[in-house]
């Protein structure tokens, strides 16, 4: 039997049901509650709330996001489960744009293709369709490993029954080494989503720019797939700067090349190689795609003028150092308004 949870914010209050063992954030979002969050996995602290009455259990006491808890009674919604009926106070979430309600999906690992640079293309077969907006992410949980991990689908999200995720294998990690292994094909996993606010706004977006690195390249591939499916590139520009370590990241490079070959002149892709040896020859440029040595934020700053940046929606995704450097460049050098930048906080 579930517990009744009341969430209060400046807009009023909302009720939802959450069973013991279930995370308050996930139950609330599935129940239509307007809740704040960022990573939804315990890292960022954006889902903090104040427990006014009732009792909860903390599932991950060492969660990095706990550093955001400053006052007595504050909890992380993504790491708390109710032990009885609760009343909570939290700021409202971002409800400015219509999104599909996050739900729990059961899935199995359908295939795994690894490259030589630590990235893997992992395909999950869902038991029922999911719909998401390009740029959103999902959470994945594997049996025997506590908690969820966030990954961005690398394709358009129109009623999909398969999710293709770009996963960076992290040595010593709990989930990524398992997801990246061929022995996991057939393994049953749990997927929660879609999540995230750093997504395309189909009725509003015109020219766009995308700055991504590592597994964050999934966001670029999702936006490229959406742009192709909707004909967006026939009317608007899209500039992508995709940071990879070396040319051995073939899972991403092959798909970027395919996108460039099938797109119009309104697409420009720069593959930014941070660790490619200086004496190695770079592949020849093709229409719409070039290879450069350097970091994403440096090449992006050279790519677009300040006035071009200010007219665009700019998506940022990738490892925290790359995201932080890109954000500094966009805010301090390009002088972008924060409202033009779309990224989900994972740190």
Task: Describe the protein's architecture and organization.
The protein is of the alpha/beta class and 347 residues long. It folds into 3 domains: 3-89, Ubiquitin-like (UB roll), CATH 3.10.20.30; 103-195, Translation factors (Elongation Factor Tu (Ef-tu), domain 3, Beta Barrel); 208-342, Rossmann fold (3-Layer(aba) Sandwich). It has 7 helices and 19 strands. It has helices spanning 24-30, 176-179, 217-230, 250-262, 296-303, 306-310, 320-333, and strands at 3-9, 12-18, 48-53, 56-58, 74-76, 80-82, 86-89, 103-114, 119-130, 137-141, 149-151, 160-168, 188-195, 208-213, 238-244, 267-273, 289-293, 313-317, 341-342. The strands form 4 sheets. A 6-stranded antiparallel β-sheet has the order 11-10-13-8-9-12. Helix 3 packs parallel to helix 4 (250-262) and helix 5 (296-303) packs parallel to helix 7 (320-333). The longest helix has 14 residues, at 217-230. It is globular and about 65 Å long. The model has no long low-confidence stretch (mean pLDDT 94). Residues 102-201 form the FAD-binding FR-type domain. Keywords: 2Fe-2S, Iron, Iron-sulfur, Metal-binding. Residues 3-94 form the 2Fe-2S ferredoxin-type domain. This is Oxidoreductase. One of its GO terms (molecular function) is oxidoreductase activity.
Question: Could you name the key traits of this structure?
Answer:
Elongation Factor Tu (Ef-tu), domain 3, 19% helix, alpha/beta, Ubiquitin-like (UB roll), globular, 2Fe-2S_ferredoxin-like_sf, Rossmann fold, six-stranded parallel sheet, six-stranded antiparallel sheet, 3 domains, 347 residues
């Amino acid at each position: 039997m579930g517990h009744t949870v009341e969430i209060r914010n400046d807009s009023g209050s909302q009720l939802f049901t959450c069973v013991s063992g279930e995370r308050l954030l996930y139950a609330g979002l599935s129940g239509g509650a307007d809740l704040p969050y960022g990573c939804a996995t315990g890292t960022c602290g954006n889902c903090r709330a104040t427990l006014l009455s009732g009792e909860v259990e903390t599932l991950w006491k060492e969660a990095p996001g706990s550093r955001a808890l400053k006052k007595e009674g504050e909890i992380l919604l993504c790491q708390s489960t109710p032990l009885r009926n609760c009343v909570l106070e939290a700021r409202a979430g971002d409800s400015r744009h219509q999104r599909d309600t996050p739900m729990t999906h059961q899935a199995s690992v359908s295939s795994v293709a690894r490259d030589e640079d630590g990235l893997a293309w992992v395909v999950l077969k869902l038991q029922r369709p999911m719909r998401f907006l390009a740029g959103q992410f999902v959470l994945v949980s594997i049996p025997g490993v506590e908690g969820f991990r966030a990954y961005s689908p690398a394709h358009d999200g129109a009623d999909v029954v398969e999710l293709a995720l770009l996963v960076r294998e992290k040595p010593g990690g709990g989930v990524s080494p398992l997801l990246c292994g061929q022995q996991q094909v057939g393994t049953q996993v749990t997927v929660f989503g879609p999540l995230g606010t750093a997504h395309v706004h189909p009725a509003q977006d015109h020219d766009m720019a995308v700055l991504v690195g590592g597994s964050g390249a999934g966001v670029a591939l999702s936006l490229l797939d959406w742009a192709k499916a909707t004909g967006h590139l026939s009317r608007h520009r899209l500039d992508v700067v995709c940071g990879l370590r070396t040319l051995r990241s073939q899972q991403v490079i092959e798909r970027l090349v395919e996108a460039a070959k099938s797109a119009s002149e309104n697409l420009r892709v720069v593959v930014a190689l941070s660790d490619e040896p200086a004496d190695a020859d770079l592949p020849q440029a093709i229409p719409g795609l070039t290879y450069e040595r350097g970091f994403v934020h440096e090449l992006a700053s050279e790519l677009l003028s300040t006035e071009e940046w200010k007219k665009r929606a700019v998506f940022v995704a990738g490892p925290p150092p790359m995201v932080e450097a890109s954000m500094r460049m966009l805010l301090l050098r390009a002088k972008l308004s924060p409202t033009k930048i779309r990224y989900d906080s994972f740190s």
